[in-house]
Design brief:
It contains eleven helices and no strands. The radius of gyration is 19 Å and the shape is globular. The protein starts with 6 loop residues before the first helix and ends with a helix.
Amino acid sequence: AAAFGAPIGGVLFAVEEGASHMNPTILVRTFVCAALAALTVRFFAGPMEGETAWGTLGTEVPVEFGRFASERRYKVWELPIFAMMGVCGGLCGALFNSLNTCLSRWRMRNIGPRGHIRLVEVVLVAAAIVSFNFFAPLACGGTTDMDTFSHAQRLFVDIGGDAIKELFHSEDRMEMGMLAFFAVAHFAQNILTYGLGVPSGLFVPALLGGAVSGRILGQAVNDSGIIAGHPGVYSMIGATAMLSGMARITISLAVILMETTGETEWGVPIFATVMAAKWTGDLF
């Protein structure tokens, strides 16, 4: 609730993933805590980001992944596309879980849960990923000045939340080759870092990787001229599919995405995507 400013999503996540049992008393306490956490975040978010005056709440307060200011519609024949994106997210999630499980077993046998070797692994992996992300934007040429990086190049150096917001809402076309390069590299980095001896997380990295893949498909669909789809919407659906495929969460993820974008219009596409991703991932 505090991390994403999504109180209802936080409660549903606790029900779906964090509780072995639930009763009305625990549910009410969870909701009160989540609501207070979200209120605190939203009270400070607007003034600290310079978008609203102190004490102002409501739709003027920025949400985690930004609001869709322009395109707010989709065609009914896009729903099968969104469902297929969910299937692809389920397959990618199954591949991620399989490879990460193999890596975790290797870590248990050869590194162990604590000690100097585990610390050395953290330092080496962190150094390798930072070095790769530092030089990767130059893979297709260009200047070394980060201020002149394109949107796709900045994915390697921006923090996750800002990068996701850019993928969702940017009206500019992004280089497809660089997006694909980042998607593959980021997927490999997720496998490597999840289970490392530091809190690395799964939510934002999975959302970012899926958002990039969705952006690629959205731009391709838009370029085809057959469907005038909005690349940012496809990016949001791709993020939903990837995280649902990896973590197998459904209801809470759908609500979190709607709360972090401030939109309920995308409820049906998100529902179709998360269920397709979960059902596909569960097959493996």
